[in-house]
Design brief:
It is a single chain. It contains 15 helices and 13 strands. The protein has about 375 residues and is an alpha/beta fold. The protein has two domains: about 250 residues, 3-Layer(aba) Sandwich (Rossmann fold), CATH 3.40.50; about 100 residues, Oxidized Rhodanese, domain 1. The protein starts with 6 loop residues before the first helix and ends with a helix.
């Protein structure tokens, strides 16, 4: 350890050499190398956390650069974990970086999380949040949670005993997983770039406190921050009587984490690929004709939303219909329209996250 690098924090009253050694020995997993993950990664690496895992399967896009300042134009099209590691290694080569360039799911989450001391959830969807929470409860891992929307952000620490001997998790705060129409989306509703920077940096602070034992963490508390008036407040979280804990890996595998909608279901690219093997499946691209990347029209039928009224009037013979777009937002609207026409007579799906999330799959199809 290069002591000079960390001198400014080592000399802090109440911190010292022992706290720095704890940081150097710690293993932290950051899930999501996006708006929240980027600032958290930068400050954890700078602080000297010994080993940091980065889990993300997305690539860098131009729309990311407004808030994900770890990346630049030269990183466009590159996997986020690779682009992040390149910058972070240059920032502090003493830190070990472990890359997980795959989507976190029920099959791999326990194996991925088990080797880390603390988990940071910087994801942007409820399926991942509930899954990560349940896995952390099962493995007894401290979980730092963050979320942002518009001009506001939230931060909490779960699975850590407070001074009163109370321990809570994400399901104590939100016992019931929301439905699709209740979910805000940054791609649709917008986000000011500094908000994930502020909240992600705060999350790094909570992680540092958990590792070193300094200060008081947000265990069993939810911090709410509003940039427009610099307002902050905290609410206390109590154990919920509606919460039913996950007690085994079997329970986790049986749990349904997908967002169920009115008559259709969001699926990932693996499920889409399996369904596409059947002749009874129709895959429809609802993006406009000028959008990229262009898809093989022998595999994907093009029916832009601006022309969807005409398409929906046609007779669709296939039993299964999968809709996709750039970010998985317009495809949901299209799925709802199709369900209004066909009801339960057809299986209707929307590709979650759209082509943007699964870009590598479509570039090699």
């Amino acid at each position: 350890m290069n002591r000079e690098r960390y001198q400014r924090q080592i000399i802090l009253a109440g911190f010292g050499e022992e706290a720095q050694q704890r940081l150097n020995r710690a293993k932290v997993l950051v899930i999501g190398a996006g708006g929240l993950g980027c600032p958290a990664l930068q400050y954890l690496v700078a602080a000297g956390v010994g080993s940091i895992g980065i889990a993300d399967h997305d690539i860098v896009e131009l729309s990311n650069l407004q808030r994900q300042v770890l990346y630049g134009l030269a990183d466009l099209g590159e996997l986020k974990v690779n682009a992040a590691a390149k910058q972070l290694q240059h920032m502090n080569p003493e830190v070990e970086l472990v890359l997980h360039p795959t989507a976190i799911n029920k099959k791999n989450i326990l194996q991925t999380l088990k080797n880390y001391d603390i988990i940071f959830d910087g994801t942007d969807n409820f399926e991942s949040r509930y899954l990560i929470n349940d896995a952390c409860v099962l493995l007894k891992k401290p979980l730092v949670f963050a979320a942002v929307s518009g001009f506001e952000g939230q931060l909490a620490v779960f699975n850590v005993l407070d001074k009163k001997g109370i321990i809570t998790n994400y399901r104590d705060l939100f016992p019931i997983q929301p439905e699709a129409k209740e979910i805000p989306n940054c791609a649709e509703n917008g986000i000011i770039g500094v908000i994930p920077g502020i909240i992600g940096t705060m999350a790094a602070g909570e992680i540092i406190k958990l590792i070193t034992g300094i200060g008081e963490t947000l265990s069993n508390k939810l911090l709410h921050y509003n940039m427009l008036n610099q307002g902050q407040y905290q609410i206390n979280i109590s154990p919920s009587s509606a919460y039913k804990p996950i007690k085994s890996e079997i329970d986790l595998m049986k749990k349904d984490y997908k967002i169920h909608n009115n008559g259709y279901l969001e699926i990932d690219v693996e499920e889409m690929t399996k369904l596409s093997e059947h002749d009874s499946t129709l895959i429809v691209d609802v993006r406009e004709r000028h959008e990229f990347p262009k898809l093989n029209t022998n595999i994907y039928k093009q029916a832009p939303m601006s022309e969807f009224d005409d398409f929906i009037q046609s007779n669709i013979s296939q039993r299964t219909i999968i809709l996709l777009c750039q970010h998985g937002i317009r495809s949901i609207a299209a799925a709802e329209l199709l369900h209004q026409k066909y009801g339960e007579s057809k299986k209707i799906y929307s590709l979650k996250g759209g082509i943007s999330k699964w870009r590598n799959h479509f570039l090699t199809t």
